[in-house]
Amino acid sequence: xxxxxxxxxxxxxxxxxxxxxxxxxxxxxxxxxxxxxxxxxxxxxxxxxxxxxxxxxxxxxxxxxxxxxxxxxxxxxxxxxxxxxxxxxxxxxxxxxxxxxxxxxxxxxxxxxxxxxxxxxxxxxxxxxxxxxxxxxxxxxxxxxxxxxxxxxxxxxxxxxxxxxxxxxxxxxxxxxxxxxxxxxxxxxxxxxxxxxxxxxxxxxxxxxxxxxxxxxxxxxxxxxxxxxxxxxxxxxxxxxxxxxxxxxxxxxxxxxxxxxxx
Length: 263
Hints:
263 residues, alpha/beta, Spore Coat Polysaccharide Biosynthesis Protein SpsA, Chain A, 11 strands, globular
């Protein structure tokens, strides 16, 4: 199953977690939905035969945005998950809804691939979906090789007992069904352990002097990578199929990349 989660972020919570650029990058609910639809459109264009589910807190808004594109929506299912999302957003960690939606799809019935909202699909992904194990976007570093002031290393040392494992970017997160039973329990538990570590004493933002945060802002990614490491899950990188616009200052690139599909 291929799926995405599109919802109105709590910008304050996201900012407080250390993403002090959140307002400039994510802007508002309408902007989030617009670039998310652009991203989904590129997948529908290259993979019209594959079922795709989008969970959202505003079905009508997302439907209006996806209908701007000349792509078939025959296999697209837009699901109202607003009640659950509102509950999940009460968690102190800003992207806990993502942890919950991944756990929901670790059901052991079918392989699952979560797609972030700022991707561009370059070609059909049928071959990608044949992989048994995990699908990540791209290798980034060892956890121990990151900057101490990010907070990830301390969170991992204290919360997981080690920082000696690889970190892959989880813009795409695929888990085949044979690994899902253990993933369903372990990934949220690892993530909570990371969130519970106070990183204030190491936290530092060179471009925002004086700002501190007490929580590592990408805890779900670290938790997933630790799970893959301890369970020796074989990982296939998806960057040959998919671009991830995660390091840009706005999400306008996602809209630009999908512009050729506009009606």
